Amino acid sequence: MSHTPARAEFIPLNIAVLTVSDTRTLETDTSGQALVDRLEAAGHKLGAREIVIDDVYQMRAVASKWIADPEIHVVISTGGTGFAGRDSTPEAMAPLFDKTIEGFGEYFRQVSAGQIGTSTIQSRALGGLANGTVLFCLPGSTGACRTGWDDVIAEQLDHRHKPCNFVSMILKHRQEQA
Hints:
Layout: E1 14-20, H1 30-42, E2 45-52, H2 56-68, E3 74-78, H3 89-93, E4 99-100, H4 102-116, E5 126-130, E6 133-138, H5 142-156, H6 167-177
Parallel strand pairs: 1-2, 1-3, 3-6
Antiparallel strand pairs: 4-5, 5-6
Family: Belongs to the MoaB/Mog family.
Keywords: Molybdenum cofactor biosynthesis
Pathway: Cofactor biosynthesis; molybdopterin biosynthesis
């Protein structure tokens, strides 16, 4: 159920997409592309896009660059949130957070349970805030990216969604930094 009034004007955000993968390229990155397609269809702008291998320091380097960039409002990563040997997105991203968005991972898993059952417990999806930038870390499957955007993220990046969303916090932080 959406709580979006029809008459309010949409505020587009600049969103960066980070794909964590040892094998994907821009041509084969269906998860990252699903996020790009959805954010652009919603009226947001793709601020940046990169693919990095599942390496804690490479992920942190890219995310830190975007967190420091006043033109990037949101970072969404896909991949590396499971329990396989090289899955290290939570370990890479969590130390960058000023605040953790506990409800993001909890709600994502709740929504996912209806689609993949108990397999959702193997998702370590997480979210946080860093320097006024919102970060969401999703699993690497295209279905998980669709679910994450459609059922959780889209409303939280629309200032018309009530009773609360992240847009006013992002814009207020940017104004304070200017």
